[in-house]
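Q: I'm writing a short explainer about DUF3221 domain-containing protein for a general audience and would like to include a description of its predicted shape. Could you first generate the structure from this sequence?
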Amino acid sequence: MKKIALFLIGVSMVLMISACFSEKGTAKNELSDYRPMIYVQDALYGGTADVISILPDEAVYIGTVEKVVPQNEPMVRENFVSNTLSAGSEIYYSESDPNVIYVKLSDTSQEQYSKYIAIE
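A: Of course. Here's the predicted structure. Afterward I'll give you a sentence or two in plain language.
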């Protein structure tokens, strides 16, 4: 009788421990951060991870990031707002391709620009 009770307690503990680990695995699969985005000229642009060192000749300065929202919250629809770029980051618009903007990266020792494309 003691062996059966110990066996049932052991099985119960194994099931409870596995339930705890499966709950943690589910949390890891949930979205915690949105992709890098910036809203300018009444359009939403998303980061591409492309970085260039020289702007195209047709790129023109259009302003700076004025407001930053948390990356784990939905993006707001206000011009010159970003969820990852720091306030004051310079924004350049490509006149030859209106679906592309460039943002000057301020945290590098070299002059570099991150490419963003229109997503809406």
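A: For your explainer, you could say: The first strand starts at residue 37 and ends at 40.
Q: Perfect, that's easy to follow.
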